[in-house]
Structure to design on (668 residues):
């Protein structure tokens, strides 16, 4: 009867399609396994198992009981290493034969701290890689070659216990960094031997004995970083750029015109003066049939139209002399010459696309059968002009002078016998663009930042002092993540700029600013975004105090990271180790000041010099600011007088600007 009475409700519930709670089989492998129901059915128990399953051994006991049994993980680790070796993966170190290892004299290893410095140009950072050239890889190979690591341990840095103090990314420099490991340091000249085996752009400053348990990664208290940036980065956006026009417009809308002009007072009219003196003279020398295209490639269509009209009103000598009758052109009221040849028609289709995502019209059609004496002038690097404000050219000053002055035949407007009319036109177009860009580069190189501008830089850097939430200054960190909070001890800009360049005349050298930050630890891209925030606020005439204070709240700011070119690890700090352990165990304190003279000389020749040369060749900073100034989306309009409000309700759907910025390389 009990059975009958119990089954009735089940049938009734089932007929209504309802699921009865707890209607489970309670025996065998189908026993209930969820919830805290004891060892057999509780969390971690896993129910009944077939046979002796060692894989689930931990699940049959508590955590304390499991570790109290002292489980041996060595076999598992060795097995994984064996599979890795048999799989044919690249070995990080060097492998010697058994006979070579047996023949080598056994010498004692000591735990040491190795003081190093390096220029990161050409390296994939300070890290382990089996396939890329890295600082750590070259260092380990030099240790082996110098006899500081035995042949038996040469196949794997882990055997020597190698630990890095600070990992640096591709191309990032370090005047002072440290690694700790066990080395054979009996030879008095071991440092010299290691340096002889190294590339000159990597140096070992010294080696100090440490306590046996020392790890430079765990013992470091804080780190000093330096960021070098050319002073012309603080110039305002060119008036012809999209961002400059938006800043002007929004300053009027917000009723902030007077304050906005006051913040830009020391650079007011700079670009207009350059255009009226230097650029106008260069434009007058460019053939009329290509003048509009040249200015368009560098400054955009609107600016090109205005400048061509101005030049036409004043009149040009030789007007139309180089115009080829076979090339069809549309001329509207004598104001502009459109590109109508089929090969160049793509340029018109790109007018609405942000300059950061398209190449110049000049690089759309390759030139073939070029004359030998013009090969330098029409190189790919010279042909690329992706921006309205020209960036440094991919040539040193001497090369620019050679093209524009010393070899007039290289810029002749007469086509070579082997060229078609269109090829001749493209060649003249490239050379004229290069000449105009070189004029802008010269103007930027001669710029000297006013003292008032430097004071505003320090004003911005002071906002970073103390413990703040830096979720806006890194990637993939929400505001509520505790790890987004970091402590900055000091952040200073050197009041005396550095002049860098090959010229003997200081007027021809480029001016750079040094910014040094001292912090406990830093997140990904944090330093580059912190400095990027200050630079953008100053060059755009924004309210520094208001914007920066707001950036530490839960508000979301899209801050582009500056190029990694200028970033350098100055030195790590080991104050706690020096006070508590070094003196107690009669070890030397770990201080980079012992090698100050060598480090400063190395910074001047191998770091600062390479930074300048790379900027001259690739124009990293110029290209970065061109992208920002001409990115036609509201994502960066928080730099305006309206602040973050200006980014809302403008342009396309929310999130569109973020995607476009990532594609343009402005965001990671």
């Amino acid at each position: 009867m009990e059975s009958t009475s119990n089954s009735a409700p089940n049938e009734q519930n089932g007929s209504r399609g309802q699921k009865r709670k707890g209607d489970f089989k309670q025996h065998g492998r189908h026993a209930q396994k969820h919830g805290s129901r004891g060892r057999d059915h509780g969390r971690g128990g896993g129910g009944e198992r077939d046979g002796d399953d060692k894989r689930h051994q931990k699940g049959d006991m508590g955590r304390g009981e499991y570790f109290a049994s002292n489980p041996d993980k060595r076999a598992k680790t060795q097995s994984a290493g064996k599979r890795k070796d048999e799989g044919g993966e690249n070995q990080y170190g060097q492998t010697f034969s058994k006979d070579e290892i047996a023949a080598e004299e056994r010498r004692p290893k000591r735990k040491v701290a190795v003081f190093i410095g390096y220029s990161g140009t050409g390296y994939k950072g300070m890290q382990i890689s089996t396939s890329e050239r890295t600082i750590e890889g070259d260092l380990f190979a030099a240790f082996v070659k110098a006899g500081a690591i035995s042949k038996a341990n040469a196949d794997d840095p882990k055997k020597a216990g190698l630990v890095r103090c600070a990992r640096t990314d591709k191309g990032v420099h370090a005047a002072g960094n440290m690694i700790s490991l066990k080395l054979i340091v009996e030879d008095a000249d071991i440092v010299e031997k290691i340096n002889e085996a190294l590339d000159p752009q990597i140096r070992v400053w010294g080696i100090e004995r440490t306590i046996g348990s020392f790890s430079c990664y765990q013992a470091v208290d804080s780190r000093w970083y330096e960021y070098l940036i050319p002073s012309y980065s603080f110039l305002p956006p060119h008036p012809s750029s999209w961002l400059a026009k938006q800043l002007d417009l929004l300053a009027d809308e917000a009723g902030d015109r007077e304050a906005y002009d006051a913040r830009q007072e020391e650079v007011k009219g700079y670009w207009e003066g350059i255009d009226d003196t230097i650029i106008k003279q260069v434009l007058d020398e460019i053939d009329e049939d290509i003048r509009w295209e040249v200015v368009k490639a560098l400054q955009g269509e609107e600016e090109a139209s205005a400048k061509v009209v101005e030049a036409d009103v004043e009149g040009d000598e030789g007007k139309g002399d180089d115009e080829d009758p076979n090339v069809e052109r549309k001329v509207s009221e004598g104001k502009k010459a459109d590109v109508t040849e089929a090969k160049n028609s793509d340029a018109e289709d790109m007018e609405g696309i942000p300059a950061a995502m398209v190449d110049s019209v000049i690089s759309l059609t390759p030139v073939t059968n070029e004359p030998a004496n013009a090969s330098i002038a029409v190189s790919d690097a010279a042909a690329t002009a992706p921006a309205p404000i020209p960036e440094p050219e991919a040539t040193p000053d001497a090369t620019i002078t050679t093209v524009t002055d010393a070899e007039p035949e290289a810029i002749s407007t007469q086509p070579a016998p082997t060229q078609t009319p269109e090829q001749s036109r493209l060649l003249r177009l490239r050379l004229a663009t290069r000449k105009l860009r070189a004029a802008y580069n010269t103007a930027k190189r001669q710029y000297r930042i006013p003292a008032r501008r430097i004071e505003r830089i320090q004003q911005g850097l002071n906002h970073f002092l103390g413990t703040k939430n830096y979720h806006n200054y890194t990637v993939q960190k929400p505001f509520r993540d505790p790890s987004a909070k970091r402590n900055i001890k000091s952040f200073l800009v050197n009041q005396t700029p550095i002049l860098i360049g090959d010229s003997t005349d200081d007027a021809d050298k480029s001016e750079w600013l040094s910014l040094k930050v001292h912090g406990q630890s830093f997140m990904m891209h944090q330093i580059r975004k912190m400095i990027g925030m200050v630079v953008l606020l100053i060059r755009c005439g924004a309210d520094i105090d208001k914007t920066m204070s707001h950036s530490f709240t839960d508000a979301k700011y899209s801050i582009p990271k500056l190029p990694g070119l200028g970033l350098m690890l100055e030195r790590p700090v080991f104050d706690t180790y020096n006070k508590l352990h070094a003196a107690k165990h009669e070890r030397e304190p770990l201080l980079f000041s012992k090698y100050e003279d060598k480090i400063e000389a190395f910074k001047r020749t191998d770091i600062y010099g390479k930074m300048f040369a790379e900027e001259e060749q690739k124009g990293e900073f110029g290209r970065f600011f061109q992208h920002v100034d001409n990115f036609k989306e509201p994502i960066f309009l928080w730099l305006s007088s309206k602040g973050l409000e200006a980014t809302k309700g403008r342009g396309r759907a929310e999130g569109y600007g973020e995607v476009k910025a990532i594609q343009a390389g402005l965001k990671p």
